[in-house]
Amino acid sequence: MNPPQDAHKFVQAHVQHNGRQLQYIRSCFAAIAGSAAGILGLTNLSGFLFYALSWTLLSVLLLSRTSGGSKYFMNGYKDIVFNGAVGGLLSYVLFHTLLYGLVHLYQ
């Protein structure tokens, strides 16, 4: 993947910091969403739809907060919307399984 034409405008240390902060936000939000889905007892397709809905909601919030991300990320909205989707899904499944097992174990 080639860097954008205006890549010289970005300071690499700041771009890396923004990426780390975005990853931290995504991980925390995936843990919260997975915990909520586990407590609510969402399984199968409804659990993954809840993840997709929560990922979309967080992406919209981040896009509105960063004005599209073009000033803060090298690839703009692509970094905000698509990066970390699989890692977020793994965190979501981990917390969903934990909380679902704790809450719905003896039902």
Automatic annotation (TrEMBL):
Statement: the UniProt record of this protein carries the keyword Nucleotidyltransferase: no
PANTHER family: ER MEMBRANE PROTEIN COMPLEX SUBUNIT 6
Organism phylogeny: Eukaryota, Fungi, Fungi incertae sedis, Mucoromycota, Mucoromycotina
Protein name per UniProt: ER membrane protein complex subunit 6
Family: Belongs to the EMC6 family.
Membrane-topology descriptor: Multi-pass membrane protein
Organism: Mucor circinelloides f. circinelloides (strain 1006PhL)
Main location: endoplasmic reticulum
Transmembrane feature ranges: 24-42, 80-103
Cellular location(s): Endoplasmic reticulum membrane
Keywords: Endoplasmic reticulum, Membrane, Transmembrane, Transmembrane helix
Record GO cellular component, one term: EMC complex
Keyword Membrane: yes
Top-level taxonomic group: Eukaryota
GO process terms (BP): autophagosome assembly; protein folding in endoplasmic reticulum
